[in-house]
UniProtKB/TrEMBL annotation:
Positions carrying 4-aspartylphosphate: 55
Keyword ATP-binding set for record: no
Occurrences of domain Response regulatory (ranges): 3-117
InterPro entries with a match to the protein in the record: CheY-like_superfamily (IPR011006), LytR-like (IPR046947), LytTR_DNA-bd_dom (IPR007492), Sig_transdc_resp-reg_receiver (IPR001789)
Record's protein name: Response regulator transcription factor
A GO molecular function held by the record: DNA binding
The organism's place on the tree of life at top rank: Bacteria
Gene3D superfamilies: 3.40.50.2300, LytTr DNA-binding domain
PROSITE patterns (UniProt xref): HTH_LYTTR, RESPONSE_REGULATORY
Keywords: Phosphoprotein
Keyword Phosphoprotein annotated: yes
Amino acid sequence: MIQALVIDDQEINCILVKGLLENFFPDRIRPYATSNLAEALELITTLQPELLFLDISMPEMDGFELLQHVRKQQKAEVIFVTAHDAFALDAFDHQAIGYITKPIVSEKFVRTVSRAIELIHQKTNTGLVETLKKAIITSGNNQDKRITLTSQKGLTFVDPAHILYCESSGNYTTFFLVNREQIVVSKQIGSFVSKLESHSIIRVHDRYLVNLQHVTSYIRGNGGLLVLINGKEVPVSVRRKNDLLHFFDE
């Protein structure tokens, strides 16, 4: 559960945003709210919230000043919720991940908060991955030869030799393994190219990476097709065809 804190000098706005969080994200966010600055500063220290909802125009300390104070203690993600749209550029200069104007439109609210949740989980998983990698290397076993894939289910450690191919779909990449398992990762396929090419897994198309150790044949064509051991036919782009054939010649 993500700890979230709503700070607004108008209590009715605190109640509204807290209620929206409880209604739309009951299993993902634990929200707290306050309209009192002193209490807000205390809650920031005790709760260490990962997500802040800040008003900008507040009498004792505006949202930007409060954010500067918060970031002396921690790095929380921030969504500004304000009646004015004139501060949007300033908000993003302060590295806010969302800017919602009042009256709040629920659809935009849900989209913005969902994006914040995904970002926070990615940061958390990245930290966990690095910790696990260090532990694996320190332990002296051979698990560090595997790659780590982060999906909604958690972390999966995969031997590159067990990867058949990877397929891109926008900002997501699906890994297809020899045991027929599929792992969907919320990263673009390009981020895996340099990591996998030393394992003979190369990019043959804008949408595909293929493990050449599992290729049974190449069908000639404009770009051609690679046939894998499971019968899957993967297209080869015209501009990558010569590089692929050169690899086979070697």
